[in-house]
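Weekly sync, protein design subgroup
Attendees: M.S., D.O., the rotation student, P.L. (late)

Item 1: inverse folding check
M.S. brought a backbone from last month's batch and wanted to see whether the design step gives back something sensible before we order anything. D.O. pointed out we never logged the input encoding, so this time it goes straight into the notes. Structure tokens as presented (200 positions):
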């Protein structure tokens, strides 16, 4: 990806210096704005809409992300990291582990909605897509496992639930949500999570 001007060159060594704190903060703002727009309008949403939400000009987005594929992949990675970091935080702050699991699954659904356009963007780069998918599994399956284990230890859900299977199930429920306005994937996912609870 081309330099956006935020990382100066390191003299004769030719290595890019780490981005300054303000540059990282600006990039995070852009990624969060893009993710929010992608969730509601899809990955083909106009760049001007993302720029408006982030409070910057479109040129700023192109300096950070020269192509739409660059932006979508960066949003994908940003959301994976946000989901991964949210799991432990939700366990620490939610009323119950099951509540933490439900909130985390909601974040995961947001991620899946954004992810729908990724395959199309990377259709000519299957190796790149496979690498991102492996990264997604490596980061998120352990987090989901931790949430399930905490809820099982609390006696809220069964102890034989598999994180990968649950994530696949949630993913399958989200298929078609973007093509049928009557299909409420979030409601179905909510029912799925509620159904994990052990009867009182």
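Designed sequence read out in the meeting:
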């Amino acid at each position: 990806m081309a330099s956006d001007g935020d990382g100066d060159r390191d003299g004769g060594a030719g290595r890019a210096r780490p981005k300054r704190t303000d540059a990282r903060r600006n990039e995070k703002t852009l990624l969060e704005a893009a993710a929010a727009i992608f969730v509601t309008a899809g990955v083909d949403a106009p760049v001007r809409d993302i720029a408006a939400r982030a409070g910057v000009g479109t040129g700023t987005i192109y300096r950070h992300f020269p192509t739409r594929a660059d932006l979508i992949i960066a949003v994908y990675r940003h959301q994976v990291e946000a989901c991964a970091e949210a799991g432990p935080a939700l366990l620490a702050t939610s009323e119950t582990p099951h509540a933490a699991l439900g909130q985390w699954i909601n974040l995961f659904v947001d991620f899946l909605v954004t992810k729908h356009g990724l395959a199309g963007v990377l259709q000519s780069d299957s190796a790149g897509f496979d690498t991102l998918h492996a990264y997604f599994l490596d980061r998120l399956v352990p987090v989901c496992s931790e949430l399930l284990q905490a809820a099982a230890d609390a006696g809220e859900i069964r102890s034989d639930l598999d994180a990968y299977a649950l994530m696949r199930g949630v993913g399958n429920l989200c298929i078609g949500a973007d093509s049928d306005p009557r299909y409420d994937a979030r409601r179905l996912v909510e029912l799925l999570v509620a159904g994990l609870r052990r009867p009182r």
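Discussion: The chain has a mean pLDDT of 84. The radius of gyration is 19 Å.
Action: P.L. to compare against the previous round before Friday.
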